[in-house]
């Protein structure tokens, strides 16, 4: 079997999962508004996902490392996604939505991290570019955002469960054909996890990037409501995500050409600067069409930031604990950051409007970029971090 053939199920899994993910990211806030929830209540529901991720991602990462399989961990999580999503979308009261949402997110949030962890390991095994595999997730996200936006504009957001289940079922079918990673080490024990907990550079780095990822996650949660606030509709929301994720796919696809030019921290700082500029521009906008066109910056902010950060923390984690470390990173990037982004963002957009929300997001990104620069130049930066884990 050629390299490309063995990677095809993995690429299709990333495509299908991120196609489901765009439906949740892009339209769940609009769906919850249709259900009668206000901005603050929507913020509470959206915060459930990141809260569940804090527990579920390290748990499933540990299980994956313990039993030395990413494939079957993914299969279990996708089955859980399909069952719990049906129940989640039946709920109508706030408390019921929150409780069932916690179960739903317990299974869904680790899938992206496990898929990326598997992609990183397969890329290393086959000596191919990780970005070239990961871009298929972005392509799935972009395709779904465009198609589903058009469909929901026609039939109504209340039917968003149907395309979600379609892509979820496709994800399960391709997951069963995945090539698993071969791990030659002994199964991980709980005491081994202490190696991550004692890794100071790892946790300092996670704390700093959280300032930037909080702004990113707030945008994930509320860009749809902001576009609607400025006069846009579901089609425009889908188009905004499409433009953003196409640029992200391009960044991943060509990562092999640009990624080795500088130290990974330099790329993370550049992305932080661009995030800051992006949010301040969004704060000043009063026409949704400008949001759509400026979404091209999504690729050079999230694409560069995520790829560089993921590669950097991979070097800080012992090989034995790759899945656990990757999912701890995911728990912070999408979990802790998502809680703050959803709760703070929901209250701000409710009370002061989207312009104020994006201005404060710009301030968060600026603070994170300043701290990243200090992390890079001070002793606990790159050189010390590299020696720490060798």
UniProtKB/TrEMBL annotation:
Q: Which GO terms describe its cellular component?
A: plasma membrane
* TM stretches of this protein: 12-30, 42-60, 72-89, 95-114, 135-155, 161-179, 200-218, 238-259, 266-285, 291-313, 325-349, 355-378
The Major facilitator superfamily (MFS) profile domain covers 194-390
Which Pfam families does the UniProt record give?
MFS_1_like
Where in or outside the cell is it found?
Cell inner membrane
Q: State the InterPro entries in the record.
A: HcaT-like, MFS_assoc_dom, MFS_dom, MFS_trans_sf
The alphabetized UniProt keywords are:
Cell inner membrane, Cell membrane, Membrane, Transmembrane, Transmembrane helix, Transport
Keyword Oxidoreductase on this protein? no
Give the Gene Ontology MF terms in alphabetical order.
lactose binding; lactose:proton symporter activity
Instruction: Give the membrane topology, semicolon-separated if more than one.
Output: Multi-pass membrane protein
Matching entries from NCBIfam families are given as: mfs
This protein's name:
Transporter YwbF
Record gene name: ywbF
